[in-house]
Every structure is written in structure tokens, then in C-alpha cells.
Design brief:
25% of the residues lie in helices and 15% in strands. With 228 residues, the protein is of the alpha/beta class. InterPro entries: PXL2A/B/C, Thioredoxin-like_sf.
């Protein structure tokens, strides 16, 4: 029988702390992953590939975001952009962001956030639904993403302004959809699964990197010393 993939406990505010179940073996026969594997994702050029192609050969960190206009997603992806490609290459891990808008918005969002790693979209939210990512906000869960700098009022104003000043008023996805973070592969293994309860319920990036075997990143403004 499959054991559940490790998830973060609610007391996971420390970015370097591993969840208690992090040592559990990967879930290699998840029916949800089998179903999601067949779903298509679309790249910035409009090319469609099966979801399974993203983690079939290498371990992958896969971050599903709410929508490309959400200020919390923008600021989280801005910090994901700071993960050096060399760190990922050294660990043989892919870093992938998946949104739920049209693929036409990918290049603009990457330019806005400085993100240069892989990005795809799931326009019909098939994978979101398959993994049970929720719609709506659970504000009873007290969490605070260490990667979100704006408060709710200022962040919401920024989101609406970007929507209004774009080519068309477009929320670039279902605004009620929540995201999640997975570590998958190689093959059909689920090493980690976290489904966001609300827009601030992001897994600290260094926690995800540590679980995937990638070196942590300094997200402060202090200069980082890298051994050469």
C-alpha cells in the first residue's frame, strides 16, 4: 500500500525546518498523479506537453500558483527567480511554475518577476482539480508567507491595476483558485505535497529546496558569499 507523501505541519514557519514526516518513503503509486500525468500543460510558445514529461526523467519542484495577477504569487515567484540555475543543476532538479491562464501571459509574467526557470500553464485547471487544490480562501488558517512583502490592501490594488492596464481586463485565471507545491519524480513518485489553504499559505522556498536536495538561497538583502 502507498504511504502518503510528506506534507508540512502547520508549525512550519521556520524556513529551514524539515517536516516531521520528511523521512517517509516517496509515494510511488498515487492515483492522483497517474490521472494528472495524462493532462496537458502548455509552454510560452503554445506547445502542449503531458504533465508527466516535466518529472519523468528528473526530480522536479512544481509550484502551482493562484493566478498571474495575484500579488502574493508575483512576490513568491520573484523569490523563486532568485534560485540560481547552478544550484538546480548541481542537484539535478527542475524548478517549474504552473499557472492557470492562457499561455500568452507566460512571457509577460516572467518578465515582470525576473523568473527565468521553466513555466507552463494548465488553462482548464485539470491538474489543479485532479490534485484537489481548493477554490476559495480559508482565512481561519493563520499563516504568513515569508516571501510576500505587500499587505492585503496595497497588494490587491496592485493586482487590480495590472489587470486594468493590460490589453484587456483579465484576471488571468480563476481568482478563487488556490495553488500548491509538489516534489515529483523521477518517474511516478510523489516526494512532497502541499495544498495551499489561502493566498498566503506558501511553503517557504528554502524548505522546498532542502526537501529536494537543493542548496538553500539567501533571500535577505545581505550579500551572499559563495565559495568558488
Amino acid at each position: 500500500a502507498c504511504r502518503p507523501a510528506p506534507t508540512l505541519s502547520r508549525e512550519r514557519e521556520g524556513a529551514s525546518a524539515l517536516p516531521p514526516s520528511a523521512g517517509a518513503p516517496p509515494q510511488s503509486c498515487s492515483p492522483r498523479l497517474r490521472a494528472a500525468a495524462r493532462c496537458p500543460v502548455v509552454d510560452a510558445g503554445g506547445r502542449s506537453v503531458p504533465f508527466a514529461a516535466l518529472y519523468g526523467e528528473r526530480k522536479a519542484i512544481v509550484v502551482f500558483v493562484r493566478n498571474f495577477l495575484c500579488y502574493t504569487c508575483k512576490e513568491y515567484v520573484e523569490d523563486l527567480a532568485k534560485v540560481p540555475k547552478a544550484f538546480l543543476q548541481e542537484a539535478n532538479v527542475r524548478l517549474i511554475v504552473i499557472g492557470q491562464s492562457s499561455y500568452h501571459h507566460i512571457k509577460t509574467f516572467c518578465s515582470l518577476t525576473g523568473y527565468t526557470h521553466e513555466m507552463y500553464v494548465d488553462p482548464q485547471r485539470e491538474i489543479y482539480k485532479t490534485f484537489g487544490m481548493k477554490r476559495g480562501e480559508n482565512n481561519n488558517v493563520s499563516v504568513r508567507s515569508p516571501h510576500v512583502k505587500s499587505n492585503v490592501l496595497l497588494g490587491s490594488i496592485k493586482s487590480v491595476w495590472r489587470a486594468m492596464t493590460g490589453p484587456a481586463f483579465d484576471f488571468q485565471g480563476d481568482p478563487a483558485q488556490q495553488g500548491g507545491t509538489l516534489i515529483l519524480g523521477p518517474g511516478n513518485e510523489v516526494h512532497f505535497l502541499h495544498l495551499d489553504k489561502n493566498r498566503l499559505d506558501h511553503v517557504p522556498i528554502n524548505t522546498v529546496l532542502q526537501l529536494a536536495g537543493v542548496k538553500p538561497v539567501n533571500f535577505t538583502n545581505k550579500p551572499q558569499i559563495i565559495d568558488i
